[in-house]
Amino acid sequence: MKIAQISPLYESVPPKLYGGTERVVSYLTEELVKQGHEVTLFASGDSSTSAKLVSHINSALRLNQLVEDPLAHHIVQMQELAERVQEFDVLHFHTDYLHFPLSALLRKPHLTTLHGRLDIPDLQYVYNKFRTQPVVSISDAQRKPLVQANWLDTVYHGLPLDLYRKGDGDGGYVAFIGRISREKRPDRAIEIARRAGVKIKIAAKVDKADEAYFETEIRHLLEQPHVEFIGEIGEDSKGEFLGKAKALLFPIDWPEPFGMVVIEAMACGTPVIAFNHGSVPEIVNKGESGFIVESIDEAVQALENIDLLDRNKVREVFEKRFSARVMAENYVRLYEQLAGRKESFFHTPSKKGNMMEMEK
């Protein structure tokens, strides 16, 4: 198939530093090319891809000090896509709802993967107006705030099988990785490790928006003897960090849409102890790839039993459910069904996740 992947321009594909959406776009694009599809990637000019790259700007917007209005560049990106739309069988957007007025008029099979949280009140106006826009969730839990949206299916994120190797968990510590923020609850992770008598290593960034929270509620906790704060780490260090950990602590306190770090840990054979919010029950195979808990006490008990889980089995679960190959195959299935639909599809919303409706 001839497929257009349309990425946000804030980060390169893959991102140089932080950028979850752009990482997924990269993994998907490379796997689609590997599977023999003709892929064109609309992204920033500093992206690295085996697909055909289309860009009007040399570097990603977030790191470009000359950029004052990011929206201007996304508008140009959409126009470039519109001018080339007849080159493609299907369009795959990763740009939230920015393109909705355009894609509704292009008369070309398309879908949008929604990568973020959807419990923002303003989104109700958007999805009430654009009820026929075909969208894909990254977990069933992510859909809950927008029941009126035209959900095609849920496609879980995936990682290349060779990105991480299974580790032995012999580092003598538990891991917390990601962002220092209130919804990620690093304070819970530190307390769980303290009660279990285990060292914790924290590899996390502090965004500007979270600096006050870090200074007032977290910094003093890092002074405890069982805590080692590493700071943000790159992709080259993540595999070893997670592979040596006894477990990943994922004590979130918000409706997590997916949780990339969870499948990164699983790729390393590292079991996950996660609080029961958002996508967690969908991503963690309870008793196989980790434990799902409701409290700090339950998390401590889970950590005490973590050696009962087989790290080989954790890796097997990752390979079966969360590889880039599986992700790409699931999207190709949607692409083919979209491309085979009648024109009336673009005017009539399908039922939530009803694939039989797609095949009519």
From TrEMBL:
It comes from the Bacteria. One of its GO terms (molecular function) is glycosyltransferase activity. Residues 18-129 form the Glycosyltransferase subfamily 4-like N-terminal domain. Pfam families: Glyco_transf_4, Glycos_transf_1. This is Glycosyl transferase. It comes from Pontibacter korlensis. Residues 171-320 form the Glycosyl transferase family domain. Keywords: Transferase. InterPro entries: Glyco_trans_1, Glyco_trans_4-like_N.
